[in-house]
Design brief:
- With 155 residues, the chain is mainly β.
- 5% of the residues lie in helices and 29% in strands.
- The chain has a single domain (11-151), classed as YaeB-like (Elongation Factor Tu (Ef-tu), domain 3), CATH 2.40.30.70.
- It is built from 1 helix and 8 strands; from the N terminus they run ββββββββα.
- The relative contact order is 0.29.
- It has one helix at 145-151, and strands at 11-14, 29-34, 52-58, 71-72, 83-84, 97-108, 111-115, 124-130.
- Residues 7-140 form the TsaA-like domain.
- Keywords: S-adenosyl-L-methionine.
- This is TsaA-like domain-containing protein.
């Protein structure tokens, strides 16, 4: 058995969408608000020079929804194959951790304004990382055809 890992959010999402819907996240504008009890503005020094951030967050909405540890049809679409939870990006993951790239619009004090984050107002933010070209996947990306259909209107 692995030890329990506890995390304290570094902040929260403020503004933007209030409901977690399936599509249309591209124009979502919100702010990442750092916890002022733990951080000063210096924690965000240099973020304004970045075009994008990777945000790790906790799927806190619908926490009573059962966790998925096996396979299922994404979005309940039986015309798509049943695939394991680690072959999809659903929110009912074993640790309910979300990861998303978003565009940096500005930095003010303990706030980073972003666009294209698929998290709702009040979402606990676990970490923020810079997006650097050297960390992006190397080589050709491969994904199943159904995932393109799923993502067609996501952003």
């Amino acid at each position: 058995m692995h030890p329990v890992i506890e995390m304290t959010p570094i902040g929260r999402v403020a503004g933007g969408r209030r409901e977690a819907t399936k599509d249309g996240w591209g124009p979502n504008r919100c702010s990442l608000m750092l916890d002022p009890r733990r951080f000063g503005p210096e924690a965000l020094a240099g973020v304004e020079a970045l075009s994008h951030l990777e945000v790790l967050f906790h799927f806190h909405v619908a926490v009573d929804e059962p966790l998925e540890t096996g396979a299922r049809h994404p979005r309940g679409r039986t015309d798509w194959p049943s695939v394991g939870i680690f072959a999809q990006r659903g929110r009912m993951r074993p640790n309910r951790i979300g990861a998303s790239f978003c565009r940096v619009l500005g930095v003010r004090g303990l706030e980073v304004e972003v666009e294209g984050l698929d998290a709702v107002d009040g979402t606990p933010v676990l970490d923020i990382k810079p997006v650097w070209a050297e960390y992006l996947p190397r080589g050709e990306l491969r994904q199943p055809d159904w995932s393109h259909e799923l993502m067609a209107n996501y952003w």
